[in-house]
Amino acid sequence: MKRLIFCLAVLVLALAARPAPLFAQAGGPLRLEITEGVIEPMPIAVAPFLSGTANAGELAARISAVVVADLAGSGLFRAIPAEAQIAQVTSFDAPVRFADWKAINAQALVTGTVERTGADRVAVSFRLFDVFAGAPLGDGMRFEASEASWRRLAHKVADTVYQRLTGEPGYFDSRIAFVSETGPKNARRKRLALMDQDGANLRYLTGDMSIVLAPRFSPDGRQILYTSYESGLPRAYLLDLETLGQRPIDNQAGVATFAPRFSPDGLQVVYSLERGGNTDIHITSLVTGQTQRLTETPAIETAPDFSPDGRQIVFESDRSGTQQIYVMPAAGGPAQRISAGQGRYGTPVWSPRGDRIAFTKQQAGRFHIGVMRTDGTGERLLTASFLDEGPSWAPNGRLLIFTRVSQGEAGAPSLYTVDVTGRNLRAIATPDFASDPTWSPLLP
Amino acid sequence: MPIRRSILTVAMLGLLAACGQNAPYGNTPPPGFGGGVPTDAVDVSVFGAGVTDTVLFPVDTWELTDAATATLTAQAAWFTRNPQATAVIEGHADERGTREYNIGLSARRANSVVEFLVLNGVAPSRLTTIPYGKDRPLEICSDEACYARNRRAVTVVAGSVDLGS
């Protein structure tokens, strides 16, 4: 007992002694070190973007606002509002008066200009500065796109700023696919929906006559795998986002197929197939249609997900008596159980970096989103509620999006994101109820 | 009786056609469905007085309880008397589980019903299953009273039925 108290005391000291975020390292470039200790967001100023050509002022304001919303929404940055900025940037190419930005304690400064470069064409140029070093951080950059894609220009700017300040790729120029839900709890209507990661540009991909669930993006972001009851039985389909054409991935009659996910090369799909009450994991080639069974136990084996290198598949099985997480070779073979704590574990998803697996945990009547190393050690629960489930990784592996369902007769699902350290839990606004979110890769 | 049966059959075919690709679930018409369609023809009374179309399961199990066995014994007898009838067994789970696992669990429940009916003389070709997981709850509260009624398998009869027997 004494030993335990001593260990706890050491732990408390260690936690207390964790360094505050290091913004400016002596002699090095400005760098936000993302550690578990990041609790103080880096103050950053985004000077309102300038209008580089006629009629670009309103667009410049909109683009600046999206850049600010992206960076602040990450929880890693605190945007100093334009009203508090004592310096005014009046020319994109004029020298920056760093003293004015130091005075409001901005660690980093973003300046930009927006130009109309042709019919429906827009370009944004921006620069990033380390205020206290009084120097640019990287070269200025310019992105051009059709006006309809103006939000993507803003996301590209924010992604670049994020990458230069954290050393990690951003995630702002990406999308979320999910299931949009309407109607009462006992007669929900569901349809597949797609939106930008910040909720803009929502559109629906299917009608709402059949139950749909659990979409997943292809590695190139152009296709979606999902499950629909449109044939009566649950069946896994491949949907082309451009044409909205779709086809089942497995044509066997009389079986239910669900939980489909792509291999990292996009050429194979791993999924669950239920026959006679038994659910096993199968794999099929999208090229040849050849199908192989990967698990052969009487257990429920579902929620498969490839490792980023394509060599292993993580999945859940109740072969031990309760839902637990296992890893097996991608070609099938002996599976190793990795979940070791109390409770039940399901919906494993391998992080894009390959080092962690996120999951849903049920214990003592509560549901959690958690992460663990790929060998099951280092488990950490990030959320707790009446019902949290189905995490999906942001393309940079820094945060997770998941479904949170409220309790009771009016209980309904909605989308949340949480940082992988458990900080910055945020509700993602959707017009209707929303479930089963999945994050796209970064857009090209 | 042949006349009545054929009328009923026609009505049921109409019902099935109205269902399109969306089979009725739990004998509760989905929204926008119904409107004068003779749902009584496939309602719970189809199995006769005192025989429900639904069996319930304890938490995270798919074994049949004694009550379920009694219900299914009566259902099996009814199928024997109605050799033309076919049925879809709909499996369901409560909301206290992850979505895909619950599909697997509800498939096990539906299959438990199929296995029992087959052991009691119903040809396997007359029975199909649909695992709904937690997506079609009957009751909407978040208490065990509702969960207990949502952990169910429902025998939804289709095909030619002679109510007179």
Report on this structure:
Chain A is mostly beta strands and 444 residues long. Chain A has helices at residues 2-17, 57-73, 98-103, 150-166, and strands at 42-46, 50-51, 77-80, 108-118, 121-130, 135-136, 141-146, 175-182, 189-196, 203-204, 212-217, 223-228, 235-240, 246-248, 256-262, 268-275, 278-285, 291-293, 301-306, 312-317, 324-329, 336-337, 344-350, 356-363, 366-373, 380-381, 388-393, 399-405, 413-419, 426-428, 433-439. Chain A has two domains: 20-166, TolB, N-terminal domain (Rossmann fold), CATH 3.40.50; 175-439, Neuraminidase. Helices cover 13% and strands 41% of the residues of chain A. In chain A, the strands form seven sheets. In chain A, strands 1, 2, 3, 4, 5, 6 and 7 form a seven-stranded mixed beta sheet that branches. The longest helix of chain A is centred in the N-terminal third of the chain and has 17 residues, at 57-73. The termini of chain A are far apart. The model of chain A is unreliable at 1-22 (pLDDT under 50). Chain B has one domain (2-159): 60s Ribosomal Protein L30, Chain: A (2-Layer Sandwich), CATH 3.30.1330.60. Helix content of chain B is 38%, strand content 14%. Chain B has helices spanning 2-19, 66-81, 99-119, 144-150, and strands at 54-56, 85-91, 127-131, 152-159. In chain B, helix 3 (99-119) links the parallel strand 2 (85-91) and strand 3. In chain B, helix 2 packs across helix 3. The longest helix of chain B has 21 residues, at 99-119. The interface between A and B is large, with 51 and 37 residues.
Number of domains of chain B: 1
Shape estimate of chain B? globular
**CATH topology grouping of the largest domain in chain A:** Neuraminidase
CATH architecture of the largest domain in chain A: 6 Propeller
Shape of chain A: globular
- Looking at how many chains there are and whether they match, the oligomeric state comes to heterodimer
Radius of gyration of chain B: 16 Å
What's the number of helices of chain B?
4
H and E string of chain B? HEHEHEHE
Range of helix content of chain B: 25-40%
Counting DSSP H or I runs of 4 or more residues, the number of helices of chain A is 4
Going by CATH, what is the homologous superfamily of the largest domain in chain A? Answer: TolB, C-terminal domain
| Cα separation of the termini of chain B | 10 Å
Share of β-strand residues of chain B: 5-15%
Low-confidence stretches of chain B: 1-44
Write down how many β-strands of chain B occur, each being a DSSP E stretch of 2 or more residues: 4
Supply the CATH architecture of chain B: 2-Layer Sandwich
